[in-house]
Fold Dienelactone hydrolase domain-containing protein.
Amino acid sequence: MEYTIEDRFILSSRNNLKVAISIYKPDGLQHPSPTIVMGHGIGAIKAAGLSPFAGIFASEGYVAVTFDYINFGESEGTPRNVLHVREQLQDFRDVLASFGGMHVTSLVSRARELAAGIAQCPLVDGLAGCLQMPLARSLKLTAAAVVDIVG
């Protein structure tokens, strides 16, 4: 199935900044249509690998939406490339209202208005993830997480 891609911005509910989204719409779309919202985890942007997956979903008849979190990619906000999980969860909610694996899991468990969620390669256990990588990389990520939490 053929599809078109529409790039646009929505406004963030927490700070009125522009959130960059790309909407992959199957041609001949029937409303309402199942929609898959895709956001990266660990600070990546929509241009870093979401497009091929969104295209496959759209070619199968689903609307797919990719987006960049505030402070990342094509979205507005400073400081750039600083990860704040609580704020990214709100960005996900904003995209849903106008959708990384851990965010999907958290949102689906709390948002009764969602029928389902798909977490592709989710990070749902940070400790287990750190224990599976080389020690030096794990320590570097842990230090970055502490700095992010402390501020």
About this structure: The mean pLDDT is 79. Residues 135-150 form the longest helix (16 residues).
